[in-house]
Predict the 3D structure of the following.
Amino acid sequence: MQQGGLWGALVGAAALLALSAPVAAYDQLVEKQEFLLEDFVTEQGASIAEVRVGWEAYGELNEARDNVILICHFFSGTSNAAGKYSEDQAQPGYWNAIIGPGKPIDTDRFYVISSDTLVNLNVADPQVITTGPASIDPATGAPYGLDFPVVSMRDFVEVQKALLDSLGIESLHAVMGASGGSVQAMEWAAAYPEMVPRVVPVISPGLDMPPYVIGLLKMWNMPIQMDPNWNGGAYYDGEPPLEGLSNALQLVTLNALHFDWADTTFGRAPAEKDGDPKAAFAAAYKVEAGLQASGDGRAATTDANHFLYMSKANMTFSVAEEIERIRAKVLFIPAEGDMIFPPFLSDRWAEKLRAQGNEAEVVTVTGPFGHLNGIFNIAQAGEAIADFLAD
Amino acid sequence: MQQGGLWGALVGAAALLALSAPVAAYDQLVEKQEFLLEDFVTEQGASIAEVRVGWEAYGELNEARDNVILICHFFSGTSNAAGKYSEDQAQPGYWNAIIGPGKPIDTDRFYVISSDTLVNLNVADPQVITTGPASIDPATGAPYGLDFPVVSMRDFVEVQKALLDSLGIESLHAVMGASGGSVQAMEWAAAYPEMVPRVVPVISPGLDMPPYVIGLLKMWNMPIQMDPNWNGGAYYDGEPPLEGLSNALQLVTLNALHFDWADTTFGRAPAEKDGDPKAAFAAAYKVEAGLQASGDGRAATTDANHFLYMSKANMTFSVAEEIERIRAKVLFIPAEGDMIFPPFLSDRWAEKLRAQGNEAEVVTVTGPFGHLNGIFNIAQAGEAIADFLAD
């Protein structure tokens, strides 16, 4: 099985499939389920009449209901962390390499649960169930648009908490997540310290969103808001802002990768159809064409307002003031070459946690993918994860 | 004198002036001069009837005309590497800390010359003289727009060569430059190896533009091309694409800086005028407002087409195939935390040059500014530069 296939699934572009590595599949089909939460009140006090999110699980819930590992998904991710919904799904979930029977997150022992967040980006993915600006406001019968309330990582966690409550789950063995998922995991550790003895933040900012990344997020939002089709968020009756969305997703992709990836996947070759970039103003390089195809492909299933709301939830994240509440031991897994959340952030926050008495360790994954080494090369940390979860 | 002032001059935003460090001024007023080159033929064979570029010099040309150091400017820079044009200029040139009497680039010994490039961005800066899409095409009496031929780093060098020819200068003691200026310096070393015994590429990609940075440059161009006022480059009769240009310059600024800069300059504070970002969709953080003010300020003196042409000249840069022509010894000066041209690029190319017998050393500058440590903290490499130029 090709790592390139997973990458292709993530970025939606056959042009980007140059690298490969072995991945073994989760061995059972996965069932996507819907959780309905009525009359949800956000952290800021706004009411949402009906919250619907998708969720899935791997393994069996034991009788004591205390063998649960919660996985939170990243910015552009979905609940599909492992396995496939059907035999013909091209690639299994993004962390399939570490979730399954006998794997580091051992589904013979653990009940692993993963849900779509509020304002999930992939609104047009038939497997995704989420609630956000693209959802129908029951009060009006039309999509909320920007009337949807601003939501926070704490709100994401509260929806997950209600899902766990509905299943009679009162404690978690661990909470894990990559990137934006690591943010939810740390929010969990601060919000429900008595429920969360272990946290595994992978490619993580630590306990707050760094100001530099707030700047990056502003720039990711920018092309959407420049697109006249965005229309202040009111595009559900017309053409969606696909050009802006494609450009936003291209920025995400580029920031999430690395020099080595670009060297290996594209090199300095021109995109042949356009002629010589040295001679023609409009002639592009392969790396440009690859980014364009990736963004265009992903834009087709992404909602622009959901992107902006997800960006906002990331910007506002901080549990730095709540650090003393956190009881969990923490395994940070940063990635070499990560230019969104560089490894020094994990080191910095591990040190602060240790200084107040928490156990905190840092294990770094490597590879050519920058930030996305935390997805594609997570198996490198498999033994560290297994050890961390063992006791 | 405040480093913050220099930063402010570079990014045009008083909001960004948090950091300070001592800088001593070049001690004489600088005179900007114009060089006219008629019937210039580009690397690709296109003719430009009249090329005009600005230039300036510090120190005295000796009788043998062999004490010349050429300084090439960066992407958004100008010829003003040191000193001031008038007493009331807010800040001296960008490398003033290392150019002057008794300084590492000692103007008591060297004649230091610096010119505006072709397609210089700062078309509306009254001190800048350049030729590009915003210039009047003598054949039509109207601005060239996208009819201006694509130009390359080699073309920048040929214009500089013609300037030196006009001054009777047949050899160079050294060629130096930061970022896009380092690119011109390496192009010089490959184009005129017999003239260039020493090269100092600061915050440099090495001998070609990495594919990853071609991707970054595509994304920098994107907002300009999304702006309806850009109009395929034909905006000289109407409103310029200031929104796109501001966004492009914000991307440049953010990519050229670093986490530490954002922490120190802004932290996680909200931009007060907008309310609480956790409650209001449109409420921003200070880092967002700072970037916006910076981009808006710089857009006022920048030409959008020149930006795109400068970006193209950077994308197409490669002298990797000509490495064997290079005779110069090379002092690479990368910067800690540089996310445009990370230090490993300097190490990689220094090794390749040493492998073919060139002397090549690497001295790294540090600080909170990422890429821009190569501008703001260049004095850290002062002794290494002085030693390199001494023999």
